[in-house]
Amino acid sequence: MEKLMQTYVRHVVEQLYGATVLDKQIQIQITNKDFEGDYTLVVFPLLRVSGKTPESTAIEIGEKLKSLYKEIESYAVVKGFLNIKFTSEFWIQRFNAAAENINFEFSCESRKKLMIEYSSPNTNKPLHLGHIRNNLLGYAVANILEAAGNNVVKVNLVNDRGVHICKSMLAWQKFGNGETPESSGKKGDHFVGEYYVRYDREYKKQISELIAGGIYEDEAKHCAPIQLEVQEMLRKWEAKDPEIIALWEKMNSWVYAGFDKTYNDLGVSFDKIYYESQTYLSGKNLVIEGLEKGIFFKKEDGSVWVDLTADGLDQKLLLRKDETSVYMTQDLGTAQQRIDEYNIDCMIYVVGNEQNYHFQALKLILKKLGFAWADSIYHLSYGMVELPEGKMKSREGIVVDADDLIELMISTAREMSKELGKLDDLNSVEADNVCRMIGLGALKYFILKVDPKKTMLFDPNESIDFNGNTGPFIQYTYARINSVLRKADEQQIKIPQKSACTKISEKEISVIKLINMFPETLALAAREFSPAIMANYAYDMAKEFNQFYHEYQILREENEELKIFRLMLSKKVAIIIKKSMKLLGIDVPDRM
Q1: Residue 579 CB neighbour total at 10 angstroms
Q2: How far apart are CA 122 and CA 133, in angstroms?
Q3: DSSP class per residue in 521-569
Q4: What is the rounded CA–CA span in Å between residue 268 and residue 274?
Q5: Quick check: 379 and 349 in contact, CB under 8 A?
Q6: How far is Cα 27 from Cα 80, in angstroms, rounded to an integer?
Q7: What angle do CA 125, 233, 164 make, to 5 degrees?
Q8: In angstroms, how far is the first alpha carbon of the chain from the final one?
């Protein structure tokens, strides 16, 4: 619609003022609901070519538009804004065009090859609520980018090595007594995570004992025996000590089995999984190469650094004094490996905003190494998920576990659905499937409807509500439409591809407007890497349809043409709701 309006206005301006204007000078927006009209032209950018007041310019353009285009019913001028109203016939034509494209496909003008990294867990603990936002955001952005016509590669980088992994390993080695996930009856990632917490508890205990013995706190943190042991374990791992490698492989295998179940329950997937243990060496080679070229420097203790102070940052560690690598080391190697493998146009990292500095530094370091593709890196920085009780702390075991949350959402959905009678007509299998859809839909939608850049507060009870801006409200709208369509089918009513109606209500026009906004909404969500745009569009569609549903008859409408039109409208809304929610990774039930 925006492009159509720009074409109309450009033509009119050329006729009235003999001037050619650029698209950026023709500013079109949806008319504010407080005023009559469909679309609004902001007149101020055109005053330079008209040489007249905003009101005079708006009136002249409005009159000319109305005289040239029969689909324009009326116009109104509000200061420097021209509100345009289209005829019912025009909107029916737009609807018929949309109805012909039953799947409402969207084609991208320039197809790009994009890689998006999300999840990126550590193999020392299970996934938690923060990981859930990361996974849902990454998976939804990938779906949206692909639907917008791009070639998308979804990847996961597993942080399976480093001092934090050695902490769980050392704790199990010291305190595990041969216990396994099988012998304990625990999920593998939960099992290993408990030893990560055990390490932290022992570490703090030793620090307290050292302080009590007269050692300053900072020194105690560095010389605690268990801390020295874990550093030695990391050194042995990088030296490929067979015993340490075997322990590492065994404990990681427990974690991977746990991760796979959680990913499956969340409904997210990846095209390729990278492992830090397989990429950090190429990163070390890049650091050594940069050191030899004088790009990096070595301190007296043997550690390797890069000086980014001239770029507004500070000095960044690349290799520790014992030559073990850090996160930046492996990120350098992984980035180069991905470019070599896929030759991608853009590499998108879905990582929390606490890592903003890290990705600024990563791009700068890659540029200093001479990689022109460093500018293709984009950090999709998102806000943290907080609880009413405050922030989560993995080392202390104060987290909302992903698996527990998934089960809580499904059980809460079951309780609320039973209470509201939404499972009454379903058998046990159907009820189980619907409760799972509602629970997961509530969780996913509640997280994805928030702008990624914003920190959010998660409230499970608020997310499962069959009214308001929630997943269950949208899911119920879809099920309600399906019920209407099933009844129409039972009455053997055929729903054609085009409507013969000539006059429809303002509420029906409002629904058609939203239907027509699907391609531009998808395009905007892709440009902004924001599933929130798609989520809130789905809610607006559901809300608008429900208002129409409560105000107008569908199957009981006596006018046959109008009845058929409303069934067509309902069917199209159902398709768009299902498609929009699918992009978010959310399923919608046919019945509830």
Answers
A1: 19
A2: 16
A3: HHHHHHHHT-HHHHHHHHHHHHHHHHHHHHHS-STT-SSHHHHHHHHHH
A4: 16
A5: yes
A6: 12
A7: 25
A8: 35
> If one looks up domain 2-86 in CATH, what number appears?
3.30.1360.70
Hey, is 385 helix, strand or coil?
Answer: strand
Q: Which residues pair with 398 in a beta bridge?
A: 393
* Count of Cβ atoms closer than 10 Å to residue 232 Cβ: 14
Residue reference for tokens 């990624």: 452
pLDDT in the model for residue 101 = 64
Q: What's the per-residue H, E or C state across 56-107?
A: HHHHHHHHHHHHHCCCEEEEEEECCEEEEEECHHHHHHHHHHHHHCCCCCCC
Q: Where does 118-386 sit in CATH, by number?
A: 3.40.50.620
Write down the pLDDT at residue 393: 47
At 375 the three-state DSSP class reads: helix
Q: Could you tell me the pTM of the whole model?
A: 0.89
Written as six digits, the tokens of 70 are: 């029969």
DSSP string, 305-322: EEE-GGGTS-EEEEE-TT
Q: Which stretches in the chain have pLDDT values below 50?
A: 108, 391-397
In the CATH hierarchy, which top-level class contains the domain 404-583? mainly alpha
For residue 506, the one-letter residue type is: E
Nearest Cα residue to 117 out of 149, 141, 144: 141
